[in-house]
Amino acid sequence: MSPDSTIISEEIQDAASVWLSRRDRGLSAAEQDTYLEWLYASPLHGRAIVQLERVWASLNKLEQWRPAHSAIPNPDLLLPRRSPWAKAGRAASLLAAAAAISMAIYVWLPSRSDPAVAHRAAIIHPGPERLVLADGSVIELNQGAKVEAHFTPGERRVQLVSGEAHFTVAHNADRPFFVDTGRVSVRAVGTAFSVALASTEVGVLVTEGKVQVIESVGSPLADGPSATDPGMSTSDSPTYLTAGQRMVVNLTSEAAPAVQDVTPAEIDRALSWQGMRLEFVDMPLGDVVAEFNRYNRRKLVVGDEATAAILVGGNFRADNVDTFVRLLDSGFGITAFPHGDEIVLRKVP
Fold it and tell me: Number of folded domains in the chain?
C-alpha cells in the first residue's frame, strides 16, 4: 500500500480542514506552534493537509474560466485523479469546504508570466511601545500597560500600574532594579523578564538571567504600598527564578505559589505580543526570504528557482525565523539545510 492510499480518519480530516481555515486568516505565533505540534504528532496529519491542498489545486484550474467562455466550466478541468479518500461522499464535502479556503501557504508553482505573481510588498506591523530608561534598560509594553519609573542613586524602581510589560535590565550590581506591583516585587540585577498584573494574580516569566520575587504578607490587594516598602512585612524566603521558569502569585490566596519550568515554545507563546510582525499575502517565497533577511543575522537562502516561486502567506514575528522554517519543513515539503550562518531552503520532490 502506498503512503497516499492510507485511510485517514474523518477526525483527522476535520482537524486538517480547521487548520487550513485558520491558516487562511493568518496564524498567530501561538497558533503556529500548536499547528507544528499537531503536524509532528502523526505523519497522517501532514498527509491530510497535503490531500486537502490537492483538492484546492484542482480548483485553481478554474481561475481562467469566465462565464463568457461557456455556460458552465469544462468538466475535464475537474476530472478527479484516483481518490485518496476512503469515501466519495467525504471527498465531495472536502471539495466544498476547500472552495471557501484561501491557503496561507500555497504549494503550486505559477508561471513567471502569470499576472497573479506580480510583486507584493510585505505588510509591516510595528511592535509594542518601547521605553528606554535613563540607565539603558528597555521596557516593552503590551497593549494597555502602564508603568512609572522612580530612580535614585542607590536603586532603580519601576511601578507596573496595569497590564503586562517585558523588562530588559541593564547590568549594574551596585544599583538593583525592582519592578513593583503592590503585593509582589521582582528584583533583578542584569536580566530579562516579563511581569503581568491582573486583578487577581501577578505572573512573572524569566527569559534571561535570574530574578528574586518578593511577596508581601497580608498586604492589600490593590492600591497598597510597594511590597518592598520599609513598613511592609515580606515573606521570609523570597523565591528565585532563573531563565525558563515562571511563577504566578494568586492575590486572593495566601498559598505559596509554585515555580514552573517552561519550554522555549511556551515562552514564545506567552510573549507572542512582542516584536515587529511581517504579514505576507500571496508573495513568492524568494521575496519573503528577502524580507526576513532584513531583520535577522542568520540569513535564509532559497536553493532553486522552483522553490523561490512558491507562494506564501501568513503573519510572522520578524525575528521568529525558526518557527517559519519549521512550518515550511514539516508541512510543505520544503527542507531546511543549515550551511554555516545560512539556512538553505529547498523543496524536496
Answer: 3
